[in-house]
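Note to self: keep these together.
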Amino acid sequence: MMAIKGWELNSIEAKRFSKVGEKLMNVRIDHNNTVTGVTPLNQTDLAIEFRFTANYSGIGFVRMDGRIVVSDDTRNPDSLAKEWSSTNNMPPDFANLVHNAVISNCIITATILTRDIQLPPPVPLPQVDASQQQPGKNLSPKGMEVA
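Structure:
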């Protein structure tokens, strides 16, 4: 069974090249996450070094380097590390687990960073169109409100 055992960021860099208040039209945001190293830790665990980048088409970027520890009791960590070092590939199910964990953790941090340096969030935020609502109607479904 594969599981994420640990997670850490080693470096975070975020830059905005445009000026505050400058109109940003049609900003393209490209995401990329790359495994930069795979090291066996013991008989079940691997340390996987990664880099996550969100590029904002010439107006800025967010880059994070870190490490994720993955436990897999069905595969030999030494053979996984050797496979990665010779081919730069991992088994698809293992790669899916790693890349999804990196993306889901880094997107949250990137969203906070981009707010602080005044770039658009790296994911589309849900939009509410109140003009389509009838007067007197609630914008949300009935139910308990949680803050």
